[in-house]
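Narrative of activities, Objective 1.

The group set out to show that a structural description can be obtained from nothing but a protein's sequence at a throughput compatible with the screening campaign. Below is one input-output pair from the validation batch, recorded exactly as produced.
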Amino acid sequence: MPAAFSVSEEDIAYAERILLNAGESFDSERREFIRNLDTVDLQAVPGSGKTTALLAKLLILDRHLPFEDGSGILVISHTNAAIDEIREQIGTHCASLFKHPNFVGTIQSFVNEFLAIPFFTNRYKKTPVRIDDDIYNQKFSKPPFNLAGFSAQESKNAKRYLMLNAKNLRWSLVNGKMNLTDEYGGKKIDFKKPRGNTKPVNYTDWSDDEKTKVCEWIFEFKLSMLKGGYLCYDDAYFLASASAAKNPQIKVMLQKRFMHVFVDEMQDMAQHQHSLLEDIFFDGGSSPCVYQRIGDKNQSIFDGKETLAQPFWNDRATVLQLNGSYRLSRMLANVVGSFAVSPLQIEGRRKNADGSDVAIKPHFLVFSDAKKEQVICLFASIIKTLVDEGKIPANPRNRYKAVAWATKKEDGKLRLCDYHPVFSRSEQQPKIDQPNLQSYIFHYNQEDRTLSSIEKNISNALLRILREEEVADITGAPYSKRKMCEFLKETKPDYWKTYEEKIYGWCLDVIRGNGNAVLLDIKNHLPGYLSQFDCTVNKSANFINDSNGSSASTATVAPKKSANILQYDGFDVEVSTVHSVKGETHTATLYMETFYEKGGGGNYESERLVNQLKGEAITATMHNRAKQSAKMVYVGFSRPTHLLCFAVHEIRFAKFEANIDQDVWQIVRL
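Output recorded for this entry:
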């Protein structure tokens, strides 16, 4: 990049033409950020257009690629969806950004590609089979329990211990040595002491020799998983840390490769992700990189350490702010601002189409035990009234969501499933791997309006069948989607055309609600598919035919509407968790209080955050559990453009009702 480079007015106008509607322009806050090419932080309120501002900067930088020194740009976000959005919005306008030496991807893909996989390949002389939690857990759940040199009781103890602790066991470097810890970067596990709920194993009956043997066996079993190339996501960070410790020059090489680093949604990074990026690209302030961190500390709801302890994202010397929210009205911005744990003024700039203020008060929906299942319907009826009155514009693209924090049913504790008993977490969060073929067909992302989600599910099902049959590619590794398609395309061209037609037809039929027919047709087609790999249905038969305990050899599974959608008078209200709606914009949002652990002044949001509901700012002395609740409410309350509702039980509401400003809030009782 030329030393005297600066962002010009023409550069900004160019970005505006691509990213904004005709007649719109970037405000002064966003222009300041777009122009800034130094190491800074950007703190941005919900709906401020921070991602659009970042896209503008990337569009402008792309015009100056390749840089004269051969360096490139690194863009990191937390999710594949965020990266896909970047590609969709500016990919066709960027000639160089998505090519070498630049990299645009998730933090996980960056760690995999530049640190973990090279280190693994150099050490074990092969590439990892897969870096994925679901597939790792699938392999981890099937250890060889006929243990040589173990008595029957010792084998039983080893099995029980592993099953109790499987999800916690992680590799970590402790004083330069490999150790098993209770999570990545956690405490070293002492196998000689009980951990957690260990009632199935009576550790007091173990001899020291037995404890040592079980410890050694679990260590070796997990090491065999690592050497075999089946890695969980945390294993990649372990390998990355081992790589950096073994070869300090890697940091220098990455700094030279990426002179401009942008991390979006920084608050979503876990501590080990944050520390890795800081160590490489800030390097105590000595790095030559321009390193910009972008996000909103008040929305850090994904990592427990960040929420409950002191934040590890500490401000740079220069912090820019985007305070204007184009999502929130002035009325909602004032309410949301009270829940900001890190003080940040929100200026609500949302207007109606005629330029007037959106003047819909937030609503308390007050309910009794007997009427908790009617809360979402009440929310829907309020929406209907506001649409009929013209206060919410009638638009088929409107989104209405009812959200809550805690979901798992537990007696005496109000959870999301108490408001909406048919709520399904598996439907909301489709996994890469499912327990059977049937689940792949029906458990896809139903919010995806394209064929992409179901296509991924069907492809993953076929790959799972190949793994069950132990079919390997030319390198001896299980097939990836890319390698499977390349194999069929290059060596089975006649079948490849059939395969493409089948996949497309199956996707269309699933979207149209014909999942039963698709399930049957896939089963009928599998012998032909597997024959391309010189294989037949054998070890995968149980996976193919299982339907949660009943035969699925015929089309017995009826298509079902989404369990997480409530249909009301011609429109849908989607029911989901607060975590799942982060980053979304809704026309109306209902936040339903739930029980989440004890402490912090109560068990529910309405108990812990009484002062904030009255409009008072958060204080530095607030209990950590209350701060955690505040962040959750901040995220949930900041989704809607028009209507915000907060459902509170009548017993808890009665305790603070007298202090609620009814010029700000409207109260509706069930």
